[in-house]
Amino acid sequence: MKHVTALGLTLALGALSAGVASAEPLTFQKLGQKARFIHGDDLVTGVQPETAAANRPPTLLQKAGGLSTIMATREGDQYIATMDPRDVALFEQAIEALEVLGRTPAATPGMPPSLPRTDGLPTVSPKVVIGADNRVQVTNTTVAPFYNIGRIGIGCTGTLIGPKHVLTAGHCVSNGAGSFYSSLNFTVAQNGSYQPWGTTSWSRVMTTAEYHNGANTNYDYALIVLSAPPHGGYAAWGTYGGGTHTITGYPGDKPFGTMWRHSGTVNTSGSFRLCYTIDTAGGHSGSGIYDSGYVVRGVHTTGSSTQNCGTRITATVQNTVQNWISANP
Fold first, then answer.
1. Model pLDDT for residues 201-230, shown as the tens digit of each residue
2. Alpha-carbon span 278 to 290, nearest angstrom
3. DSSP secondary structure, 150-210, as one string
4. Are 66 and 92 in contact (CB under 8 A)?
């Protein structure tokens, strides 16, 4: 009889019976050792290169690591939710069945924020560079979709995809060798010195075990859970479907805290990645790759002189992130 772990069965059958939009929460086990932290602001400001693993089919162990989660609290408590390699095929079959049945939602809807505080400033009502630098500065960060995008203290960008949930890159929260970064506070809609909703501290952080321990760019995505909702709103997000997309974030080669964007065609690269010639720079890491409807479809992670790339939101990634949110409401 085929061995099936409780977690693998819960994930697979929970996905089949409930659909990705209401996936079963993960079961985390507390680890005995405390999380290792690297302290300091603006430590992740350079351009991250693609790794060789991104161009090779993943092994069964890598797939299991990509479906396993490492989570840490601000106090250093560490938790793990693992996927047994023997359950990977079962889980993949469940996801494929959902896709065939049309049970994977195209997008999880977003919600607009409350108005920003004035703080003595005017209130605005919401309504790697390849070749020439075509990035455009966002001068009004309190309108859609910019009011859900923010700067992370480590030097990256993130997007609110839940009231307290910031989607970003795995390398923005982990060094890929078993240590987390501690500077993960989030300033949504920052525009230079103007912080319309202030800075919100983080509570928990999680990423894939395959990225945390192996720096595998195929699994380079993460979720930061904040201590409170910054403004109550959040962006829509869902699986990638092609077309023109925009990357907006906080590049390190521009004045501190300023937001910049650029649009272009995005294409799939293998099963895990999206690639494009949209202009980015260090600091854009973790930016959402969003379509013309302001739906986040990927996470920008790496760059080179010829193309930039990011993590594609597949049905599997969507299910994983939704499980993270469900386990940390």
1. 999 999 999 999 999 999 999 999 999 999
2. 12
3. EEETTTEEEEEEETTEEEE-GGGTB-SSSEEES---EEET-BTTB-TT-EE-EEEEEEEHH
4. no
| 183 part of the active site | no
Catalytic residue among 182, 183, 263, 285: 285
Q: Find, among 323, 292, 285, 62, the residue nearest to 158 by Cα.
A: 285
- Give SS3 for 73: strand
* Helix, strand, coil percentages in the chain from 3-state DSSP, rounded to 5: 20, 30, 50
Is 314 in contact with 240 (CB distance < 8 Å)? yes
Torsion of CA 77, 152, 174, 133, to 10 degrees: 170
> Residue 219: helix, strand or coil by DSSP?
helix
Evaluate whether 157 touches 250 at the Cβ level (below 8 Å): yes
Known catalytic membership, residue 212: no
304, 50 in Cβ contact below 8 A? yes
Report if pTM > 0.90: no
- What sign does the dihedral 168-174-177-178 (CA atoms) show? negative
Q: Which residues pair with 312 in a beta bridge?
A: 298
- 165, 171, 231, 245: the catalytic one is 171
Q: Which two tokens stand for residue 7?
A: 């977690």
Whole-angstrom Cα Rg for the chain: 19
ω into 145 cis (within 30 of 0): yes
Q: Tell which residue, 197, 217, 194, has the closest CA to residue 207.
A: 217
Residue with tokens 């890929």: 176
Sequential DSSP letters for 9-39: HHHHHHHHHH-GGGPPPP--EE-SSPPEEE-
Using one digit for the tens of pLDDT, what is the confidence trace for 174-198?
Answer: 999 999 999 999 999 999 999 999 9
Cα–Cα distance, 4 to 10 (Å, whole number): 10
